[in-house]
Amino acid sequence: MQVANITFQFQDGQPAQTHVAAQGESVLDVALNNGIQLQHNCGGVCGCSTCHVYVVKGEDYLPEISDKEEDFIDRAVNPRINSRLACQCVVQTSQELVILVPPQDFLGH
Ligand code: FES
């Protein structure tokens, strides 16, 4: 079942890529399944800030941000109002998401 399209844009200048996502998959899952480099030091359990991304489009379709996620975003590099942790952005419904991936060579923790 394919329910969403996620377009990944990259701050390091790589060309954008669009991939389909099934309900229940996270943005991190979709990135890793398609060979996109996105750090995930805690393994995707909201225990680090290394999967930090920016949601350019579609944030209203994502699960609400938790206090724990917010705490880790505060420790990420260059957090912004549209920052999220990719492992916590689980696809719930049919949607179009655009995600901006920060450079992967300098990270929070
Ligand atoms: S991989 Fe650690 S919070 Fe997402």
Describe this structure in a few short sentences.
This protein is an alpha+beta fold and 109 residues long. Helix content is 14%, strand content 26%. It is globular, with a radius of gyration of 12 Å.
**Percentage of helical residues?**
10-25%
CATH homologous group name: Beta-grasp domain
Reading off the top of the CATH hierarchy, the class is best stated as Alpha Beta
Q: If you consult CATH, what is the topology?
A: Ubiquitin-like (UB roll)
Strand share of the residues? Answer: 25-35%
The total strand number stands at 5
Our measurement of the CA-to-CA distance between the termini, rounded to an integer number of angstroms, reads 34 Å
Distinct small molecules:
FE2/S2 (inorganic) cluster
Please mark out the parts with pLDDT under 50 across 5 or more consecutive residues, or reply none.
none
Structural class: alpha+beta
Mean of pLDDT: 93
Largest sheet: 5 strands, mixed
- CATH architecture, please? Roll
Q: Into how many domains do the coordinates divide?
A: 1
> Reading side by side through the largest sheet, how are the strands ordered?
2-1-5-3-4
